[in-house]
From TrEMBL:
UniProt-annotated stretches for the region Disordered: 74-97
Coiled-coil ranges (or none): none
Molecular functions per Gene Ontology: DNA binding
A Pfam family recorded for this sequence: HTH_92
Chain ranges of the RsaL-like HTH domain: 12-55
InterPro entries linked to this entry: HTH_RsaL-like (IPR055172), Lambda_DNA-bd_dom_sf (IPR010982)
Source organism superkingdom: Bacteria
Entry protein name: XRE family transcriptional regulator
Length: 97
């Protein structure tokens, strides 16, 4: 999934459309007012904040897809043990992954 990359101008427009001051707009994203001011002045918005902005301002489907993708990072990968029948006896050490 390709994320929308918000520009400082877009972020400022979103903030103003909601009638928020910088401190109130940027705080839910974990950014200070001064950082928000820098982002709105055309400094690149960091990727973690970009992800949160896509969740906050994207469609419900986009937000769900982002969260689902992030959740897969927390799931352990499973290793498959070699299949053996009882007739074969236990797997040899060299057969194990």
């Amino acid at each position: 999934m390709k994320l929308h990359v918000f520009t400082g101008g877009e972020a400022r427009a979103l903030r103003k459309k909601r009638g928020l001051v910088q401190a109130d707009f940027w705080e839910p994203f974990g950014a200070t007012q001064s950082a928000g001011s820098r982002y709105e002045s055309q400094m690149d918005i960091p990727e973690p904040i970009q992800i949160l902005m896509n969740i906050a301002f994207g469609s419900e489907q986009q937000a769900s897809a982002i969260v689902a993708s992030l959740r897969t990072l927390g799931q352990p990968k499973t290793k498959r043990m070699p299949q053996t029948s009882q007739e074969d006896g236990p797997a040899a050490v060299s057969d194990l992954p």
